[in-house]
Amino acid sequence: MASLLGDHLFQFSGQGPPPSKDYFQLIVSRNKVILTSWKISVRLGCKGVAPKQQKISHHDFLQQKMLQQEVEAVFGDRILEHTKLLCQGKFDYLERLTDDILLKILANLELKDTTQLAQVSQRFREICDSEKFWEQTVRNGCAGFTRDMEGIASAMGWRKLFFTFFHTSGKKGQQ
């Protein structure tokens, strides 16, 4: 299954924790963990300083607690745990799906199932709470939806429209 993945299994970047203004990028490739940092400073001695890059094998990353602590300090516990799982060969293919594909999958589920799915992870919760999801739910599953209701949805939101006009039993498409 790992052959379905590209060269980069995971990539994340962001600014380091305060007071530092340094910028960091974490890449987990098929066989390496690459942590790159750029020193951001107005001091003359820091101008033109090349980025610092650490490349390490998956096995070595799992052994190096200092590097793990640096990743955790910059990106947080969730990113560190995800990185360690990737280094152990544990890939979460569902998490790698695009939002559009997940929305297509959600379109085939009952609303009660999507409420359970929203409890699986923060990503699924965000998708199940998104306006795109609720628009899809109303447009595709609610009997009695008319084009005139689009204006109402724009004003009050698709989720609120659903619960105000269509929700009675917890199932899509019923009134």
TrEMBL record:
Residues 91-137 form the F-box domain. Transmembrane segments: none annotated. InterPro entries: F-box-like_dom_sf (IPR036047), F-box_dom (IPR001810). Gene3D superfamilies: 1.20.1280.50. This is F-box domain-containing protein. It comes from Champsocephalus gunnari (Mackerel icefish).
